[in-house]
Specification:
By secondary structure, the protein is an alpha+beta fold. The chain is built from 16 helices and 7 strands. The chain is elongated, with a radius of gyration of 24 Å. The structure holds iron/sulfur cluster.
């Protein structure tokens, strides 16, 4: 590796980024030789590309594969997605988090069906007009499915770009993303191989130009990488998040019978965070076990046991949770409703948490107590 120079300060003024055009053939050859065999790479169906790209946002490839295969089996096209009811849709997505993404996908599918379309539109502009499809997703679909020379800049590509350009600007700044798109746009092949090029960049970022320990000795564009030449590869990229997460404390109540075969759950409200999913009864703040009697007046418990604390990180919010398992007799559980009615608590068979009612991964630590190993194939915590 080249000798390491002294660390540069973060740059506040974004310079024009330029990438050496010679990286294009090098990346295409690299992709041809080293691409992973992934289910969504066996097709250029724009619907399949769309589903995979939305699932891959924030989730590892290995974790996405079973979700992708199940989703495509149940909802193989735009028409099926447009008609999918909430519970089925959320069950297919359960464990991936970010439920607004799949809701937006269904809205987009409904827009297409209303307009008489059976698949995604063939222009970048038309793709961008659909709910939930932004610059990145539109670029990925346009290039991979339709072969259009449109950039698709995700987190991997931002990192690769910062290193190739030896740029110390904050890659989380939207201006950097715009500059990266402008840098790549003129380099994208116009001979129909735009999709291969897009995927080659993704592949480089996912398998070689890794976040903390880039494998520069294996890199096909090492001789065009300015960070490598300057010895800056592990200092880059610069990531400065300006988003402050709000911390929210919660107490979760796991109301079960002795053998954990029945549990009380509620539907979440129809709007807002995790809308339309289900949850265990919970309240704001960290409560002592005696709070149970105030929250559930008249409900007699056999025992109340503290559960381990849990934490869930959303994009702008952190839930810090404590929990209690409250054992109720079956006779007491019988006093609860047995079907959803608004957001009122009702008693469910625990097996239905696996097959029918979607409990978001934010409550995963408590769901696992009822159904051990249920989230084994889940992606990263969100
Ligand atoms: S040489 Fe290293 S830092 Fe530069 S693009 Fe290749 S893997 Fe990334």
């Amino acid at each position: 590796m080249a000798a390491k120079s002294s660390k540069k300060p973060t740059e506040n003024v974004l310079p024009a980024l330029s990438v050496d055009a010679a990286v294009v053939p090098a990346l295409l050859s690299f992709f041809e030789a080293h691409k992973r065999d992934l289910p969504w790479r066996r097709t250029r169906d724009p619907y399949a590309v769309w589903v995979s790209e939305i699932m891959l946002q924030q989730t590892r490839v290995e974790a996405v594969i079973p979700y992708y295969e199940r989703f495509m089996q149940v909802l193989p096209n735009v028409t099926a997605l447009a008609a999918c009811p909430d519970d089925q849709l959320f069950k297919l997505w359960e464990g991936l988090g970010y439920y607004s993404r799949v809701k937006n996908m269904r809205r987009a599918a409904q827009v297409m069906v209303q307009n008489g379309m059976t698949t995604l539109p063939q222009t970048h502009v038309a793709l961008l007009s659909l709910p939930g499809i932004g610059q990145y997703t539109a670029g990925a679909i346009a290039s991979i499915a339709w072969g259009l020379p449109v950039p698709a800049v995700d987190g991997n590509v931002l990192r690769v770009t910062a290193r190739l350009c030896d740029c110390y600007c904050n890659i989380l700044d939207p201006a950097f993303k715009t500059a990266a798109e402008a840098a790549w746009a003129p380099l994208i092949p116009t001979d129909g191989s735009a999709g291969l090029f897009t995927q080659s960049l993704f592949e480089l970022g996912a398998t070689v130009c890794l976040p903390r320990t880039p494998k520069c000795e294996e890199c096909p564009v090492r001789d065009k990488c300015r960070a490598y030449a300057a010895g800056h590869t592990t200092e880059l990229p610069v990531r400065i998040s300006k988003t402050q997460k709000t911390i929210c404390e919660k107490t979760v109540w796991l109301l079960t019978n002795r053998d954990n075969s029945r549990v009380v759950i509620c539907a979440r409200p129809d709007t807002g965070l995790l809308a339309g999913l289900y949850e265990f009864p919970n309240c704001e703040g960290t409560c002592g076990e005696s709070a149970f009697h105030a929250l559930f007046p008249g409900v007699t418990s056999e025992s109340v046991t503290a559960l381990p604390p849990a934490k869930h990180v959303f994009t702008h919010l952190i839930w810090q949770m404590i929990g209690y398992r409250v054992v109720l007799s079956d006779a007491v559980l019988d006093t609860f409703a047995t079907i959803p009615n608004g957001t009122n608590p009702f008693v469910a068979d625990v097996r239905d948490l696996r097959d029918k009612y979607s409990i978001p991964s934010a409550f995963g630590a408590y769901k696992k107590i009822l159904i051990p190993n249920i989230d084994k194939k889940k992606g990263k915590v969100k």
